[in-house]
Amino acid sequence: MNQETTETASLVVYTTHWCSDCHRTKFLLNAYDVPYNEVDIDKDPLAAAYVMSVNNGMRRVPTIIFPDKSILVEPSSKILAEKLGLALEHL
After folding, report:
1. Domains of the chain by range and CATH?
2. pTM above 0.70, yes or no
3. DSSP characters for the chain?
4. Most exposed: 2, 48, 52, 89, by fewest CB within 10 Å?
C-alpha cells in the first residue's frame, strides 16, 4: 500500500527505484499497513538535496522521517519494526 498521495500518512520515506533496502522497507511497511508517503529522490531534485542535507552530503536511502521529526537511515527491518512498535514474527 504505497500511500504516496495519502495526506494522512505519517511517515515520509525517501527512496530510489533501484535500492534493495528501499524495497525491503516498503515491503515491511506494506505488510503491516503502515501508511507512508514515498518520495523518489531520483525524480525530485529538492528531495535529493534534502536527503543529502540530513546525511552529511550522502544520498543514503531509505531515509525515513517520522512524525516526531526523528530520522532513520538505512535501518534494518528489526530497527524499523522496533521504532514503529511492530512484532516482526508476523512476517
Report:
1. 11-90 (3.40.30.10)
2. yes
3. ---TT-TT--EEEEE-TT-HHHHHHHHHHHHTT--EEEEETTT-HHHHHHHHHHTTT---S-EEE-TTS-EEES--HHHHHHHHT--GGG-
4. 89
